[in-house]
Amino acid sequence: MIDIKKLVKSFKFAGEGLFHLLRTEQNFKIEAIGAMIVGGLIVYIQPTTIEIVILSMATGSVLVMEIMNTVLERLLDILTKRKSKNFKALKDMMAAAVLLNAIVTVFIVVVIFKKYFV
Fold first, then answer.
1. ∠ CA 78-79-81 to the nearest 5 degrees?
2. Residue 118: what pLDDT?
3. Domains in the chain with CATH codes
4. pTM, whole model, 2 decimals?
């Protein structure tokens, strides 16, 4: 049986986490604005269903990667007060993953929307 109170609580906690990211993380704000622009273009242009799915997955993946990056950075900050080349490398690699994901997403957005504007 589904416990509605627990379910509502879990959504509340997730919402609090999302709003915390929007308040505190500059990159997440920028990426969320980008996702909203893509969402607005989807509503305005009305691309095919498969294009909507691809655009949604691509933009959503950037936001998820940014959340994972933020969590990893904060976890590493908690785990050690001392500077470590290994921790720096982990943070840099995760940031690179987010950057590559964002670049690929921009490419996908351009390829899909290009035909509607050219």
1. 75
2. 85
3. 4-117 (1.10.287.3610)
4. 0.90
